[in-house]
Each structure stands twice: as C-alpha cells, then as structure tokens.
Amino acid sequence: MSKLRLEPLTFCLCWILLAVVASVLGGTWAGLAVALGLLLVLMPTSAFILTRYEDEKLERQVRWGILVIAGLLLAIWLTR
C-alpha cells in the first residue's frame, strides 16, 4: 500500500473548498463551474507538463498557480 502524501491531499481539499465556497456564495451553477472548469484545465495541463518536461516540481507549481488564479477570479466575480 502506498504512503499517503500530504501535498496532493491538501490540494484536493483546497479544490473542494473552493468549489463549495463558489456553490454557497454564487449558487449551484457557480460551484459546478469551478469544480468542472478546474478539472478541464488542470488535468490536461498537468499531463502535458509531466509528459513533456517530466518535472514534478514544475507541475506542482503550475497546478497550485492555476488554483490560486481560480480563487482570485472567483473572489473578483463574487464582489461584482
């Protein structure tokens, strides 16, 4: 059995938290848009970086960067 890693677990929890916040503050469709939108952006980006550059550190940085940008965009959208 593989060891449980803290960083991917933290990332998943932050992704869930962002989707739940979007759902509570912006409505069900906003929560679904955040959750599925991130899925459609993060998975191909991570796969591209890992297959092209084979650099896990770069992939991790890009993944967290996308999540932070999504959070900032959600905050901007909710304050309008």
Structural overview:
The chain has 80 residues and is mainly α. It contains 3 helices and no strands. The longest helix is centred in the middle third of the chain and has 25 residues, at 28-52. The mean pLDDT is 95.
List the helices and strands and how they pair.
Blueprint: H1 6-26, H2 28-52, H3 56-79
Helix pairs in contact: 1-2, 1-3, 2-3
How much β-strand is present in the residues?
Answer: under 5%
Count the strands?
Answer: 0
> Can you give the helix content as a percent range?
over 70%
Give a short account of the largest sheet: none
- The overall pLDDT average reads 95
Please identify the structural class as seen in this structure.
mainly alpha
Low-confidence stretches: none
**Roughly how many Å apart are the termini?**
47 Å
Instruction: Note the run of SSEs as H and E.
Output: HHH
Give Rg in angstroms. 14 Å
Total DSSP helices: 3
* Rough outline: globular
